[in-house]
Amino acid sequence: MPELPEVEVTRRTIAPGLHGAVVTEARLGKPLRWPLGCDPQQLAHRTVGLAQRRGKYIWLPLGAPLGGAAGQAGTPGDADADADADADAATGGLLIHLGMSGSLLLSQQPAEAGAHDHFDLVTTRGTLRLHDPRRFGAVVWSPALDREPAARLLAGLGPEPFDAALDAAGFHARLQARRAPIKQVLLSGQAVVGAGNIYACEALHVAGIDPRTPAYRLSRPRAGRLLQAVRDTLARALALGGSTLRDFHDAHGMDGAYQQQAAVYGREGQACPRCAAPVLRIVQGQRATYYCRACQRR
DNA sequence: AGTTAAACCTGGTTGC
DNA sequence: TGCAACCAGGTTTAAC
């Protein structure tokens, strides 16, 4: 479900409603990929900032607790307790990842938490709920984006696809260092973030590039075309409301519309829309790759 | 160092 | 119908 377009759609749907809300309570369900990293009660009384996105992560800024509620904890003279109280009072935020099957829903009257609802952030403007059957997702407290643990999780990410500072030359240069197949390099996010398995396949098809081509072998012009194809593919999916295959819906529960649009992904044996040759399915790095042998070349 | 496999976990689909 | 096998949008960690 969640590649960059889905994550961005989610961010856009939750950001306005949550901005300025005050957290009243946080609840945890079953364990996710990583622990929250703080006591859920520590999230209460904080004001929610404007949700941001980095790669496929959503960053939800949380201000310091209102009303001096913190600071009542420490025993006078106990240095460790004082330090903890200071940490509790500081600003920070939640780094949220949707994993393979996660989705966020912001609602005024949330139903009782189900078996796959693993995190609730109850606020004065509604409850943000993470629903994630496979539990590859995560919600992690971090003092800031550039401090641990967020900094470590974001450390390996390449440039944002829509960052104007990323140009064909820069993208090409990043590919030069990689001998792995271009499909796997796209998935790694080291040259550009955001293309998951579906959009990586689609972008390579748009660019007419064989997914098995070693990344460093792409010429500068072809690298430029691939970067443009990644941008076009992601932008198109974004414009259609995200959605990949089956069960994506935004934070208001609306379905996306990209699912009918795939040219090669999930279409093994069907005709390539461009040249009518049958679409092939191969496995690269334990992930399925779909491509057209006739019009995608090395 | 760079590339590749294994792991995390659940549910839906496919095939015998 | 029952059940095993296989598949799925992602990323970290361990192992060649």
Provide an overview of this structure.
Helix 1 packs across helix 7 (220-239). With 298 residues, the protein is of the alpha+beta class. Mean pLDDT is 89; it is low at 70-86. The chain is built from 7 helices and 10 strands. It has helices at 4-18, 79-89, 150-154, 168-176, 182-188, 197-207, 220-239; strands spanning 23-28, 52-54, 57-62, 92-97, 103-107, 117-123, 126-131, 138-142, 280-284, 287-291. Strand 6 (117-123) and strand 7 form a beta hairpin. The strands form 3 sheets. A 4-stranded antiparallel sheet has the order 1-6-7-5, covered by helices on one side. The protein has a 4-stranded antiparallel sheet with strand order 2-3-4-8, covered by helices on one side. A two-stranded antiparallel sheet has the order 9-10. It folds into 2 domains: 4-154, MutM-like, N-terminal (N-terminal domain of MutM-like DNA repair proteins), CATH 3.20.190.10; 168-291, Helicase, Ruva Protein, domain 3.
Task: List its salient traits.
298 residues, alpha+beta, Helicase, Ruva Protein, domain 3, four-stranded antiparallel β-sheet, elongated, DNA-binding
Describe the secondary structure blueprint for this structure.
Blueprint: H1 4-18, E1 23-28, E2 52-54, E3 57-62, H2 79-89, E4 92-97, E5 103-107, E6 117-123, E7 126-131, E8 138-142, H3 150-154, H4 168-176, H5 182-188, H6 197-207, H7 220-239, E9 280-284, E10 287-291
Helix pairs in contact: 1-7, 4-7, 6-7
The protein binds a DNA duplex (16 and 16 nucleotides) through residues 1-3, 6, 33-34, 56, 97-102, 116, 132-138, 153, 156, 177-180, 184, 187, 189, 196-199, 244-248, 285-288.
